[in-house]
Specification:
Length: about 800
């Protein structure tokens, strides 16, 4: 291990310098990744190139002072490569960008080790440094960049600007903020005491000046906690670039509103949800290149992330121009995953269908990959955003793209709150979650008891009613006036709302929120504590926690009479309109089949398909199913199979990929004759061949019927002395759907037919005992026109005789 060497400095000074270096380098690396990707899109952007050069130059200078040879060598290599581009001696191409990004990744790894161990780990970086080496003739021609300064005085000047700021540990900043808020609360209480005591006006004037100074100080400290949101956006370009290359997609990434400021704690809470949404847009939203071309779109997709301030809220918008969401496909996925029943799905409106993606376990991925498909995703995004008082909103344009809007409060420490009273105590409710306030005894309010709960109807819209005293397990206070009881319509999250009954409404206040004691927070009913102007501690209610404690459904779907009627009308329309599964056939044709005849889509290895008795079959688990295919597929890998099910039999149909689920158009152009294709329909203006499931099942009905016979007829082989019946005849009969026993086999069941292998007719009839007899002969020719025996190697004649005698599915 290589230890940093500091001449004439104490251990504490060394630690401080190293911590400062790591903090500064982490910020530089976060910004540099996005800057490099942006520069790759426009290599002629001199300002971006200069900024990247200064980033690595700063790291090199600092690491040299701290004697970190690996960090110095890596940053020096990147600096040299970028300097060659600045001088016009090297091309700005993808290979260079990938090499510099590799340097940044290695620097991140080294900084992580430095932060953990305090020493630079030994190692060899020639692999990533070598990746920056020019490829000679393979390189593109150098870009001519006019007016690029070759001196580095500007770099030195930029470095000197860093001495105008200092780094403050975050715990110290939090402590300062806590102290300032305590001063503000004490000021508020002192102001109330001055007003009540009738103090001298000159004293009040002096206090007002002090109060203004405190307000300014609080504002300054609050600003210290704020960070530009472009720090949140910084890693996104790199994420988009790497994932797009991995998936073979072309994506132009744009950001705007980076100057908007957000509380640093809030920024940390939305970092993971934002990254997840962007990755989802790349993986699920943006179509493959061939699909974009087929849809008439530009090959290069666009994903944009923008931020803007709206009052005390920050709105972050993530927009893509991909395929958007198909509500019907979401419903089909949810039903297949057993997240909703078919009856529940029919009652969903368009908005509720889209919000199915927020259900736990829901995933639109066809298979599990390193990127997606595990069913853990948008539900966690929604929960994390709502936990900090935000909401997630979907704006869908099917076929054209999806916009996801995140609305979050600017800061978690100071919020606007509504003070309410219940059980003789005051509580606070976040003002952002309050939709409406009404008197419980008002003319527009009706309260009904339904089952074990209550329902509040406000202007024909129904809300589940929660009484705060009941949720908290407290009794009503004797001093509460029934006429003062109020209903607070609360909207804890998107698509949810309920009515909260409280004893009285007190006031609106700007509240400074602090964490409550762990035992209080563990109840799940409170989001923190605050001290209003009267100086009495007040608990901030967790509006989502109250809902969870009540264990009620607060979904807004179908609340009002109009919504109910609309849902019923949509349910009728859904029942009358069949759904069509669009897929790409193995011959690359786009075809469709009614979704209702598909049991599921299987993905099986190609090796699971085999040919037997002239037909292609597939082994899926412990079962074997027929496959509609003319020949076995070639190659390795996997194959998708549509499992068609008619209530009794299963038939597999091989496809290349599932495209979408749409409504089956009313107009169908039928085929001229019965066959695989029943007709042609137009979907999105494009012709789609409609598969005829009746014709398909008809082709395989004979084989399917064998497996579905309620009882297989029992055949007995009489006098099978040489074993011919057991070795040659029995397998044929069993494959045709019959059970076979020999003379010596124990069986209490009477046979349905006797197959006699001896030439003595009288003995055959004696052995039969009233059971139908089929006599087999060894000679090809019959003894005469009256000979009713069957040649034992005439398969079809034998099976025909079996059907005439006992029925069955003989083939």
């Amino acid at each position: 291990m290589v230890k940093p060497q500091f001449l004439g400095r104490t251990g504490t000074a060394m630690d401080d310098l190293l911590n400062d270096f790591l903090a500064e380098t982490a910020e530089i690396l976060a910004e540099a990744g996005g800057a490099i990707v942006a520069w790759e899109a426009d290599p002629t952007d001199r300002a971006q190139l200069d900024a990247i050069f200064r980033f690595v130059h700063t790291i090199k200078g600092s690491s040299g002072f701290l004697a970190l040879p690996r960090v110095t060598a890596l940053s020096h290599a990147a600096e040299d490569a970028l300097d060659q581009v600045r001088r016009g001696n090297r091309a700005a191409n993808a290979a260079l960008v990938t090499g510099v990004l590799g340097i940044l990744d290695r620097l991140n790894e080294l900084c992580a080790a430095l932060g953990q161990d305090g020493t630079e780990p030994a190692g060899d970086d020639r692999d990533v440094i070598g990746a920056l080496a020019e490829r000679g003739a393979d390189e593109d021609a150098p870009h001519e960049i006019a007016g690029v300064p070759l001196r580095r005085e500007d770099d030195l000047g930029a470095d000197l600007q860093g001495w105008r700021s200092i780094r403050v540990p975050l715990p110290l900043l939090d402590s300062v903020m806590t102290g300032v808020t305590d001063i503000v609360l004490a000021r508020n209480e002192f102001a109330r005491m001055l007003r009540e005591s009738g103090a001298d006006l000159s004293l009040i004037a002096s206090f007002d000046r002090l109060s203004d100074s405190i307000a300014g100080m609080r504002q300054s400290v609050s600003q210290m906690r704020m960070q530009r949101i472009d720090k949140l956006f910084a890693p996104l370009p790199r994420i988009v670039r790497d994932l797009a290359q991995e998936l073979g997609k072309k994506i132009a990434f744009q950001t705007s509103g980076g100057e908007v400021e957000l509380d640093r704690e809030m920024m940390e809470n939305i970092r993971d949800p934002l990254i997840h949404i962007v990755r989802n847009a790349i993986d699920h939203g943006v179509e493959p290149l061939e699909d974009r071309v087929a849809a008439g779109k530009e090959i290069t997709a666009t994903i944009s992330v923008s931020a803007r301030q709206s009052g005390n809220q920050i709105e972050i918008e993530i927009r893509d121009d991909g395929r958007g969401l198909s509500p019907d496909a979401l419903v089909a996925k949810a039903i297949a995953a057993r997240l909703v029943t078919a009856t529940e799905a029919r009652a969903l409106g368009p908005k509720e269908k889209l919000e199915l993606i927020f259900r736990p376990g829901f995933s639109t991925a066809a298979k599990v990959t390193a990127i997606s498909g595990r069913g853990v995703g948008m539900d966690i995004v929604k929960a994390n955003v709502e936990k900090i008082g935000g909401i997630v909103e979907l704006r869908n344009d099917e076929g054209r793209g999806l916009t996801i809007l995140l609305r979050v409060p600017m800061t978690l420490t100071i919020i606007s709150g509504l003070m309410v009273r219940a059980a003789g105590q005051y509580f606070a409710i976040p003002r952002g979650a309050v939709r409406e306030i009404l008197l419980e005894s008002g003319d527009t309010v009706r309260i009904d008891r339904v089952g074990g709960g209550e329902l509040a109807t406000v202007r024909e819209e129904q809300y589940p009613l929660l009484r705060l005293e009941t949720i908290l397990g407290r009794e009503r206070h004797d001093g509460d006036d029934v006429d003062d009881r109020a209903l607070v319509i609360v909207r804890p999250g998107q698509g949810q709302s309920y009515a909260l009954s409280v004893a009285a409404i007190h006031d609106h206040e700007e509240l400074v929120i602090k964490p409550a004691a762990p035992m209080i927070m563990a109840t799940g009913l409170y989001a923190g504590t605050t001290l209003p102007d009267n100086g009495r501690p007040v608990l901030l209610l967790d509006v989502q926690g109250l809902l969870a404690a009540a264990a009620i459904d607060a979904s807004e779907a179908g609340r009002s009479r109009d919504r109910t009627a609309e849902a019923e009308a949509e349910a009728v329309a859904a029942r009358n309109a069949a759904q069509l599964l669009l897929f790409r056939d193995t011959n690359a044709r786009i075809r469709g089949i009614r979704l209702s005849v598909i049991e599921r889509v299987e993905e099986v290895p190609v090796s699971a398909l085999f040919e037997s008795a002239g037909r292609i079959q597939a082994q899926i688990g412990d079962e074997i199913f027929p496959v509609h295919a003319a020949a076995l597929p070639g190659g390795q890998g996997t194959l998708k199979l549509l499992r068609l099910y008619d209530g009794q039999a299963v038939l597999c149909y091989p496809i290349a990929e599932v495209i979408d689920i749409v409504r089956l158009p009313d107009a169908v152009q039928p085929s001229a004759a019965p066959g695989l294709v029943a007709g042609v329909v137009l979907v999105g203006g494009e012709p789609v061949e409609l598969i005829d499931p009746f014709w398909l099942m008809e082709q395989y009905a004979a084989g399917a019927a064998t497996a579905l016979t309620p009882r297989q007829p029992l055949c007995r082989l009489a006098d099978d002395r040489d074993g011919w019946g057991d070795n040659f005849l029995a397998p044929i009969l069993r494959s045709a759907g019959y059970r076979v026993i020999a003379d010596g086999d124990p069986s209490d069941e009477a046979p349905d037919v006797l197959l006699c292998l001896i030439g003595d007719d009288a003995l055959c009839l004696q052995l039969a005992g009233g059971v139908p007899v089929i006599r087999l002969r060894t000679s090809i020719a019959a003894a005469g026109p009256e000979d009713e025996t069957v040649y034992r190697y005439d398969r079809q004649a034998l099976l025909d005789a079996m059907r005439r005698s006992v029925g069955g599915a003989g083939k």
